[in-house]
Specification:
mainly alpha; Rossmann fold; Arc Repressor Mutant, subunit A; 5-stranded parallel β-sheet; 3-stranded antiparallel β-sheet; about 65% helix; ATP binding
């Protein structure tokens, strides 16, 4: 039927796009080699993006590629969630069938794809939207990778400027993660529509920094190219003056050239482009124009059956009416079952010609017919299209009802931004519908609550705060304390996410509103207890969590019981009671296994891995973290939970000094687009490796991204402490001791190191090492910091074997600390402790002991590639005159000869730098009196009477070069 209705070809000649086609072909060839490539193809409306992609697709198919295509749909401002991917998936199912497609995916994956296409059965019942959304992303990635294993794959998505938030997020995810699969992704968008606030702009900027992403802009046609296009359309060379006129009016945009020629307005008529487009339509028969106006109300693409239902025409009558539009190339046949305006601009121009009454009637008809038979539109699109049409028809009642339904559908599809937009529409229409609450079965406050949740999930934090506050104004604490409490908890979440003070105060307020034991109080206490623990108040956090646990057990909520056991385990870990933490995690894991709850199992395993690493059982921690990641893939929770288990794996590998492996794990996890908090933790882990290897540029980049240079807030003990530790290391590596001491002093007060045992021991050990590594004008200040660190040390307890090793460093028991690190299998901190022991031995004048420690530390540092530590060991060896090998001879510096001793050369170098005796003493770990003796000997040997003369003499005799 529709397949036989084909319009004339506008231009049989492919003009002016050879270079762009060549780039696409090269990108395809590169992807076939196993380097996935993404091409961002921009251009003005009508410039020929679709034509170029179509020509390239022909080439790719000739080369044996499988091509999947999808397009984004404009429906008011909300778009359609995942529309391009739904279209591509539908095409794949038509070509292969449901069963073969499902066979390409892990067990159960079809239930996730059912959210896009009902042919895959009933969607998963998972109500955790972020989790299910992440799983959907992973399954689409896996599907593309499996398809590409069979033959090269090309995925084209057109009109990305109309993409909904969910589609944009999925596009970005695939662009980062299709790394070695032979896949080429081509995305087209209208560059002239990307205003400053357009949501696609930051996405394009971000993708432009991703390896394997190319960005290409299609230019307008030149004068000669327009002439060639016109010749192809007209069947022969056009007159020169006609080319000039068309070129001037079209400005080289192919669609405008076509429109000018089709309308016959290629001479000097004073008509705008809009006039030309509508003029071409107006030349069609009246019945054809009437049907086109109906089709324009339906969108750029409208199904034959739907248009027939709306128009009231029989199939034959509709075909007769629309055939002239196809012949005139205003409408094209798509997939043999739908009509497509040749360009969205044409559809927009026709739609703009609707009279007010027509506009209302036609959109109402579309809404009514889709409601009557939802199979008239592709699966999953009915609710949002109905909402769009009732809103466009200005029918407030049905616009509200349909927007409410569509918001629910969007939530189930994890399209949070679309859900928020629809809920905002419900709120905007509320006052216009007197019985709105009865119509949708929910009160205004509930809509505000849902909107705040959607805002939180989509990152619209400022908007979300407004919704929560508006909801709170509608409720009374006296009459509905539980609802108020839950909203206040949400408000606290917004404060925390926005890094604003007050989250704890909100949680305490919520706790006071629900004094009676019950599910609501357990919920509030769970949030409060967790917040307290991560803010450093382990004692109260534990008490609150234990109360929540008693209530949860009383109401029989086993899932909450397991979560609370894990929260208690976190507190025990913070407090250094690691064996108890492992036991609590084990009990929670058992509950999760009994319930079949993958989230709980993975969470318990991850916390166990962290505790094992802190116990010094890092090899076991690596195994546990890898197992947790495998389980997260099985449950489709890799992005949500699995990437955090990758962090646990990387931290354990870093503890074992398997740094290259740790970096590989971190970089692979970062490439999977983790949530912001996990990303920052991964970056800090990368920073730890950078510290050990002396990668200052990497460390600076990490600290910038995690916001370490900004003023600390009252939130996030772990984050602040980790930032401080990395900042201290950075300034130490850059040779800025005073700045390092500033950070050390700040770290002793905010947050309190005693808030987490192991964190506190590690911080104090870093401060001790810092103060024993530098000498500056603030040496007295360093000594004061050591005294303060000693006072803090007295407040710390626990920490397990790792904490004990750090404690030995804090007590200046360096040989014992080195032995402890050796037992734990951690060579880098062992070598650091040996270096500190050598410094102490030099200070005590025990050269033989210093040499022994340095000789033990040096090969460890060298084998690890720990450049800063190696240099520090070698520097101390030179200053102490301590050879690092059996046959090594200490080289005090060329030119010294037999005139000065090695120690005197060291002292002379520091004298030449303008150092005082006190500074030199601290630098060389000797007394100031000994320095004075060395200086006197130097003056005597050089035959001079002052430090200045000694420096000049040293330079003249090349004693220091």
């Amino acid at each position: 039927m529709l397949e036989d209705m084909v319009g004339r070809t506008v231009s049989p000649v492919f003009v002016g796009r050879e270079a762009e086609l060549g780039i696409l072909t090269e990108a395809f060839d590169e992807s076939r080699k196993g380097a996935a490539t993404v091409v961002l193809l921009g251009g003005e409306a009508g410039v020929g993006k679709t034509r170029l992609v179509g020509r390239f697709i022909e080439h790719a198919q000739d080369e044996g590629a499988q091509v999947l295509s999808g397009g984004c749909v404009e429906l008011s401002t909300e778009g359609l969630a995942y529309a391009p991917f739904t279209a591509a998936l539908r095409q794949l199912v038509r070509e292969m069938g449901v069963a073969p497609v499902s066979a390409l995916l892990p067990d159960g994956a079809g239930r996730d794809l059912a959210r896009l296409l009902p042919e895959f059965g009933e969607p998963s019942g998972d109500t955790e939207t972020e989790t299910a959304r992440a799983r959907l992303f992973e399954q689409i990635l896996a599907l593309l990778e499996r398809l590409a294993e069979r033959r090269p794959l090309v995925l084209t998505i057109e009109d990305v400027h109309w993409a909904d938030r969910s589609s944009r997020d999925l596009i970005a995810f695939l662009s980062r993660n299709l790394r070695t699969a032979p896949v080429l992704v081509v995305l087209t968008y209208r560059s002239d529509e990307l205003h400053r606030q357009h949501p696609l702009r930051p996405v394009l900027a971000e993708l432009g920094r991703v390896a394997g992403v190319l960005r290409m802009e299609i230019p307008r046609l030149t004068h000669d190219e327009v002439a060639a296009q016109m010749a192809g359309i007209l069947g022969g060379p056009p007159e020169y003056h006609r080319v000039v006129t068309v070129y001037q009016r079209s400005e080289g945009i192919p669609l405008f050239v076509e429109a000018l020629l089709e309308s016959g307005a290629d001479t000097a008529f004073p008509e705008s482009l809009h006039d030309l487009i509508t003029g071409a339509v107006e030349s069609l028969p009246d019945e054809t124009q009437r049907v086109l106006r109906m089709a324009a109300a339906g969108g750029t693409r409208v199904g034959h059956a739907l248009l027939a239902a709306v128009s009231g025409l029989s199939d034959a009558a509709l075909e007769d009416a629309i055939r002239p539009a196809i012949a005139a190339n205003v409408i094209q046949v798509a997939d043999g079952r739908a009509y497509l305006f040749r360009h969205a601009l044409i559809r927009e121009a026709v739609h703009d010609e609707l009279l007010p009454g027509e506009h209302t009637r036609m959109h109402s008809r579309f809404a009514e017919e889709i409601e009557r038979d939802r199979t008239l539109v592709p699966p999953g699109r009915a609710a949002i299209e109905i909402a769009h049409h009732w809103y466009s028809a200005r029918d407030d009642l049905w616009a509200l009802i349909s927007a409410w339904e569509a918001a629910g559908k969007a939530a189930k599809a994890f399209a949070y931004t679309e859900q928020l937009q629809l809920l905002e529409r419900v709120l905007a229409l509320w006052e216009k519908v007197p019985d709105a609450a009865e119509r949708i079965g929910a009160d205004h406050t509930h809509v505000l609550d849902l909107a705040s949740g959607a805002a939180l999930a989509s990152g619209e934090l400022e908007r979300g705060v407004k919704f929560v506050k508006a909801a709170l104004r509608e409720l009374s604490e006296e009459s509905e304390p539980e609802r108020v409490a839950e909203l206040i908890v949400r408000l606290g979440q917004f404060h925390k996410e926005r890094r604003r003070p007050g989250a704890l105060e909100h949680l305490r307020h919520a706790e006071r509103l629900v004094p009676e034991p019950g599910a609501a109080r357990a919920y509030v206490l769970t949030r409060l207890g967790s917040h307290l623990m991560f803010s450093g108040d382990i004692r109260e956090g534990t008490e609150v969590t234990e109360e929540a646990l008693r209530i949860a057990r009383g109401v029989g909520d086993e899932s909450m019981v397991a979560d609370l056991l894990i929260n208690l385990a976190v507190g025990k870990s913070f407090d250094g009671r690691l064996e108890e933490a492992i036991a609590a995690n084990g009990r929670a894991k058992a509950i999760g296994e009994r319930l079949g709850n993958g989230r709980l199992i993975i969470r318990a395993m991850g916390n166990t891995a962290d505790a094992l690493n802190n116990l010094g059982r890092s090899e076991e921690a690596v195994v546990m973290a890898v197992q947790a990641q495998e389980l997260s893939r099985k449950y489709g929770r890799y992005r949500v939970q699995g990437l955090f288990q990758a962090l646990n794996q990387a931290e354990a590998l870093e503890s074992l000094c398997r740094w290259e492996e740790a970096v590989e794990v971190i970089e692979a996890a970062l490439a999977r687009d983790p949530v912001l908090q996990t990303r920052h933790h991964l970056l800090r882990a990368r920073g730890d490796v950078a510290v050990a290897r002396g990668e200052i540029d990497v460390l600076e980049s990490v600290l910038t991204e995690v916001g370490a240079y900004s003023a600390p807030t009252d939130e996030g003990v772990q984050e602040i402490s980790a930032n401080n530790r990395l900042l201290l290391a950075l300034y130490r590596l850059r040779g800025e001791p005073d700045a390092a001491l500033d950070i050390a002093e700040r770290s002793l007060h905010h947050p309190q190191p005693s808030s987490k045992a192991l964190m506190g021991w590690r911080l104090l050990a870093d401060i001790v090492s810092l103060c024993h590594s530098y000498v500056c004008d603030s040496i007295t200040r360093a000594e004061g910091l050591l005294a303060k660190a000693g006072a803090v040390r007295a407040s710390l307890r626990g920490g397990g074997p790792v904490g004990d090793a750090y404690r030995l460093v804090c007590e200046w028991s360096y040989p014992e600390a080195a032995a402890a690190w050796e037992r734990l299998g951690r060579p880098h901190p062992r070598a650091e402790a040996l270096l500190l022991a050598a410094k102490a031995a030099v200070h005590e004048g025990d050269r033989d002991t210093a040499v022994a420690h340095l000789r033990e530390a040096h090969p460890l540092a060298v084998s690890l590639g720990a450049t800063p530590l190696t240099e520090s060991i070698e520097l101390l060896a030179r200053r102490a005159g301590a050879p690092l090998g059996d046959d090594a001879a200490f080289d005090a510096g060329p030119g010294a000869g037999d005139l000065l001793t090695p120690r005197e050369v060291q002292v002379l170098r520091l004298v030449a730098e303008g150092r005082s005796n006190r500074d030199i003493a601290a630098e060389l770990f000797i007394s100031a009196k000994t320095v004075s003796v060395h200086v006197s000997n130097i003056l005597a040997k050089l035959g001079v009477s002052s430090r200045t003369e000694a420096t000049a003499a040293a330079h003249r005799r090349s004693l220091l070069t």
